[in-house]
């Protein structure tokens, strides 16, 4: 069984050796050597080789004849092949000889084809390179001509279109390397031009603003048919701007012009042909820089830079000079610069898309408006010249109207002008205060003499005098008032005109203007003119005649108040009966002044009386004399003479018209009564003076004589108009007191005291007691000197008894 398996294994190995590549039979042979039947395998191998040799031999024997035949045929063919080879070599030699010319022609043709191909390739490459060179040349020309926006467009086309088509050439590489440098150069140059432009418009904003304000003045002066024309007449957005925008939108073209930035030279033109902002300013640097930065993709950078720089310039423009308030030219320059700034911004707003927007301009304007208002409030407060304030107001109105024409809100400016109106009113009051004082200082306080009809009409044209009686008088004649009245009335009208001038162009209604004028006029009357009249009345060395003339003047001015009302109504067209209309307080003002003058007359008269009374030199210890031996004191004689001459001034006053016809009489009556009362009171004070401790009956008799002189003066009627003995009542207190003492009628006084029918009703017991105490001292002294005179002792006892009774009377009355 084992031998069968061994034989099968050997058979397998032999098949494997027969069918396997010789390089891979190593493992097979190793399995033979690993076995125990190595020799048996060798035997089988030899047997297998022999079998294959026999098969090979059989096969060779089977094909040998055909091999021999093939060799025989091959030998025959070799001979023929040698012949053919000789013929081929010979033919090749002939062919080579004959083809040399053709080969040469073919080489030439080949070279020609190569040259043609190279030429075609070169032409194609040159066709691609020539536009690059031409464009680069154009770029260089544009750069030399400073046409940077077209240069940038050319640069973009060169970089993105021409160079990629041209291929990789050295000059293309050089150009590509130069492109960023050129772009940076264009960017820097454009920015430099923009800076120059910004600096130029900052320096020339004054000229731009002046031109815009002239345009506003021209627009305001046009008639209604012209004002209906489009706003383009003012030059804000005229056809030139539209053309400029159209030109700037052209493909590849430069916006507007390619000139340098700055203010264009403009000849002085007539008012009817005032150039616009676009005529004065070359805005091309802004447009050019905007387009360049837009192409470079840096529009935001440009916008931010432009706005930042303009904000800085706005702050500089809005900073007023420290001495701006000194002259109108300072204000005008300040306003011109501001208007120039915003005219440029408005032009930029409407000729560019997005460089500045409405919100940005409004923000700048709000900032400017707050600073303008603050600056004007500060600087105008230093001004004390009403003409300058009025010119400033007109300039502000023109400034506001100009900017309002460009769409800027200016209501705050008009509100500020209304605030300045109060300041203007105060300045006017100060000026008119000086004017009124000058008129008063120059006035002679005398009625105005007129000798001709022309002079009379001249004064009546200045002041509304209505006195039919005066008109009937023949020339020469006198007007009742002094020069102060027509001059003051004219100044009142001038003040009203000055107030009206300020209210013009403030967009106020007629009612508001009327109210403003009336309130200002009331201030002038109640404060300024009233103070001036008080100044004139209280001034030193003012005589009674001058004070009387002041009364007459104020009376006529009071009558003229309704003419002032009519005057204001005529210029404002607001009837005085309008609801809430302010009334003039002139009547009360002149009444107060007249009352002050009257009081000053009384005060002055009393002061003069005091001067005479200071000359009184009574001998309070004089002995009793008969009444026939006493004469009136010298000082009192002089005083009475003075009073008579003084009251004659009142008597000779010119008549007053209408209801004031009796006014001088009333003043004279009051003055006369006041003077008499003052004399009586002063004489009473002399009696009761604490320094006078002793009074004799003789002194009382002298005083009684003086009192009789005063009563004689009162009865003579120094001033007409007193009824009966009214003026004597001023001396009744002193008269009853002296009668009581000189007649020694104490029994009647003590018996009737407190009764309405008492003869000595006006004698105060305290006064009588004080006077008796002084007489007691005198009596006591006389008793000491003459102890043995019974009459003196009796009188002393009587005085003591009366004093005791008076004290009891006072005590009872007090209880």
TrEMBL record:
Gene Ontology biological process terms, A to Z: Golgi to plasma membrane transport; intracellular protein transport; vesicle tethering involved in exocytosis
Domain of life: Eukaryota
Entries under PANTHER family matching the protein: EXOCYST COMPLEX COMPONENT 6B, SEC15
Keyword terms, alphabetized: Exocytosis, Transport
One Gene Ontology cellular component annotation held by this UniProt entry: exocyst
Family: Belongs to the SEC15 family.
Domain Exocyst complex component EXOC6/Sec15 N-terminal as annotated: residue spans: 44-213
InterPro entries named among the record's database cross-references: EXOC6/Sec15 (IPR007225), EXOC6/Sec15_C (IPR046361), EXOC6/Sec15_C_dom1 (IPR042045), EXOC6_Sec15_N (IPR048359), EXOC6PINT-1/Sec15/Tip20_C_dom2 (IPR042044)
Function: Component of the exocyst complex involved in the docking of exocytic vesicles with fusion sites on the plasma membrane.
Protein name, per record: Exocyst complex component
Protein's UniProt keywords contain DNA-binding: no
Exocyst complex subunit EXOC6/Sec15 C-terminal domain span: 412-774
Region (Disordered): 237-269
Organism of this sequence: Xiphophorus maculatus
């Amino acid at each position: 069984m084992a031998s069968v398996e061994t034989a099968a294994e050997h058979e397998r190995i032999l098949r494997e050796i027969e069918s396997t590549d010789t390089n891979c039979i190593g493992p097979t042979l190793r399995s033979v050597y690993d076995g125990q039947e190595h020799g048996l395998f060798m035997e089988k191998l030899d047997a297998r080789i022999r079998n294959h040799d026999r098969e090979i031999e059989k096969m060779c024997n089977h094909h040998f004849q055909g091999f021999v035949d093939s060799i025989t045929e091959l030998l025959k063919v070799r001979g023929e092949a040698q012949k053919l080879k000789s013929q081929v070599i010979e033919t090749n030699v002939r062919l080579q000889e004959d083809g040399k010319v053709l080969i040469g022609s073919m080489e030439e043709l080949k070279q020609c084809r190569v040259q043609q191909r190279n030429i075609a390739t070169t032409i194609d490459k040159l066709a691609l390179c020539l536009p690059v060179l031409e464009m680069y040349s154009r770029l260089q020309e544009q750069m030399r001509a400073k046409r940077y926006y077209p240069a940038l467009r050319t640069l973009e086309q060169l970089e993105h279109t021409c160079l990629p088509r041209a291929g990789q050439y050295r000059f293309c590489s050089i150009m590509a390397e130069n492109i960023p440098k050129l772009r940076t150069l264009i960017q820097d140059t454009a920015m430099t031009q923009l800076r120059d432009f910004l600096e130029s418009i900052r320096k020339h904003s004054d000229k731009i603003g002046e031109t815009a304000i002239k345009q506003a003045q021209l627009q305001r002066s046009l008639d209604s048919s012209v004002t209906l024309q489009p706003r383009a007449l003012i030059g804000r957005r005229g056809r030139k701007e539209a053309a400029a925008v159209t030109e700037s939108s052209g493909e590849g073209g430069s916006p507007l012009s390619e000139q340098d930035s700055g203010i264009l030279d403009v000849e002085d033109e007539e008012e009817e042909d005032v150039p616009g902002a676009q005529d004065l300013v070359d805005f091309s640097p802004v447009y050019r820089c905007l387009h360049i930065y837009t192409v470079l993709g840096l529009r935001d950078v440009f916008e931010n830079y432009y706005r930042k720089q303009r904000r800085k310039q706005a702050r500089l423009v809005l900073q007023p000079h420290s001495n701006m308030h000194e002259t109108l030219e300072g204000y005008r320059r300040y306003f011109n610069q501001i208007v120039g700034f915003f005219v440029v911004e408005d032009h930029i707003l409407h000729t560019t898309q997005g460089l500045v927007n409405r919100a940005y301009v409004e923000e700048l304007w709000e900032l400017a408006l707050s600073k303008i208002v603050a600056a004007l409030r500060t600087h105008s407060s230093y001004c004390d010249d009403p003409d300058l304030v009025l010119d400033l107001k007109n300039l502000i109105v023109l400034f506001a109207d100009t900017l309002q024409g460009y769409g800027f809100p200016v209501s705050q400016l008009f509100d500020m002008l209304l605030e300045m109106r109060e300041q203007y009113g105060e300045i006017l009051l100060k000026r008119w205060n000086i004017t009124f004082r000058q008129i008063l200082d120059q006035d002679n306080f005398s009625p105005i003499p007129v000798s001709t009809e022309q002079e009379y009409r001249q004064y009546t044209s200045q002041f509304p005098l209505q006195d039919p009686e005066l008109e009937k008088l023949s020339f020469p004649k006198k007007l009742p008032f002094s020069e102060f009245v027509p001059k003051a009335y004219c100044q009142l009208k001038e003040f009203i005109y000055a107030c009206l001038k300020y209210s013009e162009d403030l967009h106020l209604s007629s009612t508001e203007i009327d109210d403003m004028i009336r309130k200002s006029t009331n201030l002038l009357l109640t404060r300024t003119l009233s103070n001036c009249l008080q100044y004139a009345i209280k001034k030193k060395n003012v005589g009674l005649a001058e004070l009387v003339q002041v009364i007459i003047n104020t009376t006529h001015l009071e009558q003229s108040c309704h003419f002032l009302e009519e005057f204001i109504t005529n210029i404002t067209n607001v009837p005085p009966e309008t609801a809430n209309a302010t009334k003039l307080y002139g009547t009360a003002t002149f009444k107060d002044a007249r009352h002050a003058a009257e009081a000053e007359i009384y005060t002055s008269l009393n002061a003069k009386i005091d001067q005479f009374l200071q000359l009184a030199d009574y001998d309070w210890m004089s002995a009793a004399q008969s009444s026939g031996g006493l004469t009136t004191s010298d000082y009192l004689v002089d005083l009475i003479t003075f009073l008579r001459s003084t009251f004659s001034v009142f008597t000779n006053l010119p008549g007053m018209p209408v209801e004031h016809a009796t006014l001088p009489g009333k003043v004279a009556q009051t003055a006369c009564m006041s003077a008499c009362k003052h004399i009586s009171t002063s004489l009473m004070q002399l009696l009761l003076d604490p320094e006078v401790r002793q009074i004799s009956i003789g002194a009382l008799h002298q005083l009684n004589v003086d009192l009789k002189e005063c009563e004689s003066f009162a009865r003579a009627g120094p001033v007409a108009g007193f009824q009966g003995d009214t003026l004597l009542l001023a001396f009744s207190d002193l008269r009853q007191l002296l009668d009581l003492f000189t007649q020694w009628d104490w029994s009647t006084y003590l018996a009737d005291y407190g009764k309405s029918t008492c003869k000595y009703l006006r004698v105060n017991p305290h006064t009588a007691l004080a006077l008796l105490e002084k007489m007691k001292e005198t009596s006591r002294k006389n008793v000491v000197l003459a102890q043995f005179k019974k009459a003196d002792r009796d009188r002393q006892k009587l005085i003591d008894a009366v004093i005791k009774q008076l004290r009891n009377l006072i005590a009872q009355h007090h209880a």
